[in-house]
Amino acid sequence: MRTPQRAAVGFHLAFAVLGVVFLAIFSWVFLKEYLTEWRTTQAQFDQLQRRVKDPHALSLAAPLGDIRQVWLPDVDRVDRCTTCHLGIDDPAFATAMEPYTTHPGTWLQTHAPDRFGCTICHGGQGEATDFRNAAHRPIPNWSDPMRPPELMEANCGTCHRERRPSQTFWLERGREVIANAGCIACHDVPGFALDDLRAPRLESVGYKVRPDWLRKWLADPKGYLLQARMPNFRLEAAEIEGLTAFLLAQRETAPLDSAGIDWSKADPDRGRTVFGEARCVTCHTIEGRGGTMGPELTTVGSKVGRDWLFGFIKDPAHDQPGTLMLRYRFTDEQIRDVVAYLTEELVDVETPKTPPEVRYVDPKLVESGRQTFVRHGCYSCHRFTGMMALGKIGPSLVGIGDRAIEPTDFKIEAVVPTRSNWLFLKLREPDRLADESRMPTYGFSETDAAAAVVALLSIRRADLPASRVTDQPRLARYEPQGAFGALVARYRCLSCHQVRGWGGELSTVPFDRIGSQLQHSYLVSYLQLPSAVRVSLEERMPQFHMTREEAETLADYFADVFVDDSLGGDIQLDAEAARRGEQLFQTLGCRGCHIVGRTGGYVGPDLSDSGRRLKPGWIEAWLSEPGKWKPGTLQPNYGLKPEEARALTAYLMTLSTDRSGRKP
Amino acid sequence: MTRRLGYAGAIGLGFAALVATATGCRPGTVASQADPLMQVFDKQAREEGLSRLETDGKRLFAHYCVTCHGETGEGDGQNAFNLDPKPPDFRVSLKLHQPAYWRQIIEAGSLAVGRSPLCPPWGRALASGDVDALVAYVGVLSRPASEKPASVEPASTTPASPAAPTVSATSARM
Amino acid sequence: MSVLTAVGERGLATWRAVRRSIFRVGWPRTDKDRAAAMISSVVLHVHPAKVQRHSLRASYTLGLGLISFYLFGVLIVTGVVLMLYYTPHPPDAYRSMKDLQFVVTFGLVLRNMHRWAAHAMVFVVFLHMCRVFFTGGYKGPRQFNWVVGVGLLLLTLGLSFTGYLLPWDQLAFWAITVGSNIAGYAPWLGAEVKYLLLGGNVIGAGALLRFYVLHCIILPLLAIMLVAVHFYRVRKDGLSAPPLPEPPPVEEMVAGRFPPSTRSYGLMALTDRPAQPVVEAEPDDEVLAWPHLLYRELLLLLVVLVVLHAVALLFNAPLEEIADPTRTPNPAKAPWYFLGLQELVSYSAFVGGVLVPTLMVLVLVLIPYLDPAPRGVGVWFAPERSWANRVFAALASVTILVTLVGMFFRGPNWAWVWPWTQ
């Protein structure tokens, strides 16, 4: 019988060993806690800050050995990054090693850490207190890792919702790509509105285009026009036939009557002259040169019919009510000559001169074309009557920046399965990620697609409190009425100019205070015959062939309404001031950028005519503080004293010669 | 006895199978996957070889300075023809002075340092961060052609080298 | 000097008096004291003063019941500490898990221990059940104890299941979705049970709070009560069923009386028995609980603690993203102990969700009454019970097999995958 005294040695040995092992493991628990990464990091920092001279008082006063955090309840974030990044807001640590370095740049001055924390901009898991779990690099089960600087711009965009946030190259570009591509037509994209869309109405397209051109266009829009907004829908041949039939059957509004035109008398050379004077290349490209507001005209003769083109130039709004193209005051002969020039010279040499006479009357083909039209969502951009009630065919992009992407969403295995890669591939090759995708191929360049991805990633699910969001103010529609309004509507001033932000961006001259900037008589003569004010620009105001009465109506309205009273007032312009101004003009080297007389630089406007063109109140205000009137202008701010600005104004008002050196 | 052994053996085998399956079940090492989006950014960064500050400076330079100084700072901008004296060639002129001098010209104008008035003062138009960026980019332009990142050279003169300095690229990524 | 010794003696005497008031029997040095220490201490008197030698053999019981009790203790201790930091309301629940992981001192180790102890307990309880079956420990007089044990098994599963939801991450949310759906498959009762469990029709804040209360109050209380009954029966029926070489002689089988060799001494038995000196009737193979049983129990406790600590320090309990009711992982898997059921459900909802679980519980509960013959008790895989052993072993193997299939061999859309290709 065993007694306790003779208990087996085996037991005692087992106890001893297990006891020691248990103590070792139990002490491991304590070691693991008191030797965690953040504690050792803080200990090293403590040593470092004794070596750094004159550290910020705050970092010495804050006790080490504690976890530090920034708690932002309004965005439900806790950021414990400063537990290790101890010198982040202390300039004394600018040359220290990571993680103690100061934050680069001036970002912390505009985004104070105690209001923004860190993960709002950088991403990552703020709750963590060690390197790996903070998602400095991607980790499983955390969908918002820290991002490289390009993708960080998407985080900027979460709060900065304006179309062009400053200092963000990729985000700004991406938002522009999205606006131009017209994603809003098929998807709900927060921050973009249907007003941004520009696609022609198709209700009367049957009168407009040649069938062979239409087929080629539907097969590959960019084959005709490199800057085409319309993407490639990867249509099959049967679909193209059906769509062609459907579109050619759309003949709602006949073009303006050109029956009385004698085409035999048309003169393409005169047409070319009229074309040049009208400065059509401001908006249209021909053989690579010109603007992009309107379609390219290099082969327009092979695209449209002659009669339609006549009617269109005569009154663009007849066929396309929302068009940006203005209505010149041409005579019918002038239009005839222009049309002859366009249709005879600007043709695609490979297409036959006369279009094939094909009539599309097969109703089944038209119906199948209609179904194709609906199936691919063409009505979303082209706003077809009778289809207005149909919804958007693409999924909503609300919260796309947070959408979880499973690895199974990728059909291609050799790609890192992140959300940004999925979006990138989707934009570049929509048919590659899904078996059947109606999303067309846009042919984005790599950088455009990458920028669009950044912009899309800024669209998050969670709603931010209003105090955190910045946005541009909504633009009020500007649609003037009356005689002025009719002229503005006819000549489409707002296609290029802006009033209170509403309008086109081709011109750098908004109307808001133009009556205080330009003299009335100058405006009247300029509107009838625009001249080159800025020598180096390619875009020029077209010659509208408007009547004198029309020019005076416009100039009167400008002078009465578009004024800024702060720019008025009489200014004493005596010869003494003008002399001083001339001296200043020399001293400051203004001729380096401006032409006066015969010589000068090409950067700014020609000042030779200032005395007849500009108003003195404006000149003085502009010279005193150019950045106030036009942010980003190349006109420098010299910090002129008021009498210096006045002297320069006086001098400029004495300049009334045109470039030929003649005085009036 | 053998029956018991049999049963014990069966249980043991089952347990071993469980352990084997559990340990065999690890995420397979994936063959190196491509990251197409980051490749686009990396290509930009590699081609440019510029830090973020320098890239900001490059955009500012393109907006404010290229008209006179030219894209590479050699003084061949489209307006340079009209200037007298012409803008200097940065590859030569910048090394004669410190960056603080360049900064002074940018902020106060060339007139303020006793030269021609043709380079106007930008100090009131630019934030100090913007001036830092410009100074950084101007520093890039001051290097001789062999040291410059490929993107700075105009396309016609130097083909973009794929072996752009990787050291500056990796430091630039931070 | 004498003042000092006087004070010292007075102090010592006081100290001894205080000690004796707490520990009635001091550190035992004689066999009588050892026996007395066992039965006079509230903590220790769950043990008898003497135990049979066979029940000390590790290869007999494998200590599985004791291990599961230790795990339960660890779970209670770690669980109470975790309760100090946990908030049972989404999404604070998830945030408190992150806080435990990163901020709370020892938080990570605590949580890991709790989770691994929970998983281990389910497994050990299962093994304990198998051991009891294979050694015939459910035969008379232990039939009801077996039923109580089945109740404890169900409570263990319930505790693990309710605790599974508390982290409120994707793993938790969807596992409980699957589990409660399986519970809902039963006709008539299923929907009611599911509604009762979740406190509604969806898994939301109400379900979380309900699971929290179940997990921390209701089920532990029930478990403690059943554990008390279970221990009491174990204590009264003799610690573990000893081998019965042959049935006891008929003359000793009196109505209401149990074979003496299976029982420890109780007051009433002494009066009922034929007049024999207790000492002479003592079986040969009984030893004092102190130190033999206690030593072994302590050793086992150390082993369990060492293994638990090691596992908790080396392996982290999983925590996925916060629960998102709009995003279902593919595949969504129930907790591992229900994966066998989920596998069967994938063939037939009725079979897997209703038939098999009901039959399993019913059969388990009825086992001691289906096979009451006292044969083959006390040895592993006794040949007299080979048929029963084979059937049980087959069922247990099938259970383990389907669970393994559900764990490792099922991928997206519940399609078959080979685990090494994942």
| Mean pLDDT over the full residue set of chain C | 85
**Content-based structural category of chain C:** mainly alpha
Count of alpha and pi helical runs of chain C = 15
Helix content of chain C: 55-70%
How much helical structure, as a percent, in the residues of chain A? Answer: 40-55%
Please trace the helix and strand order of chain C, writing H or E for each element: HHEHHHHHHHHHEHHHH
Topology:
The complex is a heterotrimer of chains A (664), B (174) and C (422).
Chain A: H1 9-34, H2 37-51, H3 57-61, E1 70-72, E2 77-79, H4 107-110, H5 113-116, H6 119-122, H7 149-159, H8 169-181, H9 205-208, H10 211-219, H11 221-224, H12 237-248, H13 268-277, E3 285-286, E4 289-290, H14 306-314, H15 316-319, H16 332-345, H17 363-375, H18 378-382, H19 419-428, H20 430-433, H21 446-457, H22 482-491, E5 498-499, E6 502-503, H23 514-517, H24 520-528, H25 548-561, H26 575-588, E7 595-596, E8 599-600, H27 610-613, H28 616-624, H29 626-629, H30 642-653
Antiparallel strand pairs in A: 1-2, 3-4, 5-6, 7-8
Helix pairs in contact in A: 7-21, 8-21, 10-12, 12-17, 13-16, 14-16, 19-21, 24-25, 26-30, 28-30
Chain B: H1 2-24, H2 36-48, H3 52-64, H4 66-69, H5 90-93, H6 99-108, H7 128-141, H8 166-173
Helix pairs in contact in B: 3-7, 6-7
Chain C: H1 2-22, H2 31-40, E1 50-52, H3 58-61, H4 64-83, H5 92-102, H6 107-134, H7 143-165, H8 170-183, H9 189-198, H10 205-236, H11 267-272, E2 286-288, H12 289-314, H13 339-347, H14 349-370, H15 386-408
Antiparallel strand pairs in C: 1-2
Helix pairs in contact in C: 4-6, 4-12, 5-6, 6-7, 6-12, 7-8, 7-10, 7-14, 13-14, 13-15
